[in-house]
Amino acid sequence: MDNLFASFKERAEAVSAEVHRCGTAAEARDFVHGLLREVGGTALWAPCAFLEAQGRPAFPGLSYDVTREGAAQAKVGISQMEWALADTGTLVVDATEVGSRLVSTLPQIHVALIGADRLLPDMASVLGRIKPEKACYLSMITGPSRTADIERVLTIGVHGPERLVIVFVEGGAA
């Protein structure tokens, strides 16, 4: 697992993502709280298994009522990912639920929670786990949003978050 994590971290950081590892769900919650204090502004946390298991922390400026308007105004969006791919530094999420898409695409900063046990070597590994009859909308996220014009001028954050913070949680807590 450490080799997979090192590979994921190297590739994700190569495309400007930030990768962190927390030993427990409580550490992950504290990390998110610290990040929210650091960046200020409002935040939205999409419903997910992490919240069902850990409860909804009450942080200033944090809401769980995900709406299009709220996501467009929020500085931070927090959601849980289904899988992470070590060979590309890519996150994979079943984004059938619109709230997951809103918090991962509209705020300036996206915090992506992922259970460390959900780290897979490559795309072939995840394809066997996807159930098309249940996952109507898959998203693959590799780094913050970026685009370039015909003159190859790179711009970060035009079509999505300008900052991607990935938080791995050990022990299957996410």
Automatic annotation (TrEMBL):
LUD domain boundaries: 7-169
Superkingdom of origin: Bacteria
Pfam families, per database record: LUD_dom
Protein name: LUD domain-containing protein
